[in-house]
Structure formats: structure tokens, C-alpha cells
Amino acid sequence: MAGENYTRVADTISAKEGAAYITIDGVNRQLFELSALNAQIDLNVLERNMLGHRMTQHKVTGATGTGSMTMYFMNSEMLKVALSYVKDGKFPPISLQVKNADVQSTVGKQEVIMRNVIPTTIPVANLDDQSDDPITFDTDFTFDDIDGLNYFDLPSNYR
Description:
Helix content: under 10%
Number of helices: 1
Number of strands: 9
Shape: globular
Strand order of the largest sheet: 2-1-5-6-9
Strand content: over 45%
Structural class: mainly beta
Order of helices and strands: EEEEHEEEEE
Largest sheet: 5 strands, antiparallel
């Protein structure tokens, strides 16, 4: 391939590089039990056929923050949150700060904070006499707001 402008594998971001932090009711810590996390913004799109135009037109009318996590079953913090809600009707504010950063890449790091996170599944107990694997669980979540702290740069050969 001629030229310098192509995607270099060294500039891709490894999913194993980075970190996540959780803040529950103002208390921040590393989300050490995290195995995998995916989050996205889904746009709400209005579709309309307008007079004088034969193509369907589209307009963004809002957005929804959704995601999913796989976590190791080794921390009771979320169970305490769920029980607080079940018993007292109180659900504390939760935020997730996630950083993707691979030192091999020249694109730098991307870091976001998702706010008002609500996980949809909270584990209570898990036993299995047929498994030697660590216990994990999957949960989807929603978030109501997001802030970008850092964004990826162009790869060095595109600057």
C-alpha cells in the first residue's frame, strides 16, 4: 500500500486497556469487579413524509443512554443499593466513569462519565455444582446524562 495514510493496527484500542470507576451516593471507587462494559447513545429519530418531497425525512428528537455490563459476583454494594430501594424506596445517584486508553496507540484516550446510571439486574445469590468458573452476571443499564472528559485524537500518521 502506497502512502502513510492507512489504519495501523498499533493505533487500534485494545478492549483490555482502560479502567472504570463507580460513584454511588458520592462515594467513588474503581469498579474492580468489572469484566466487560458496553455503552451507547441511541438516538430517537422522527420519520415524516412531507408535502412536496417524495423521500421520508428524518429528525433527531432525543436520545437514550443504554449499556450492558458483565461483572464478577464478588461485591455486595449493588445488593445493598437494591435492598435500600426495596425497603425504603431510596435509590442513590450512580455514575460510571470509563476510560479507554491503550499506550501503544497514538490516538490517546477517551474518557466519559455516565450519570444517573440504573442497572436493571442485581444479583442476590448464585450456586452451581457443575462449574469451576468464577461467578459472573450480566446486567443492562440506562443513563440519563453523559459528559466527555477526553476524546481520541487522529492517529499520528493522519495529523
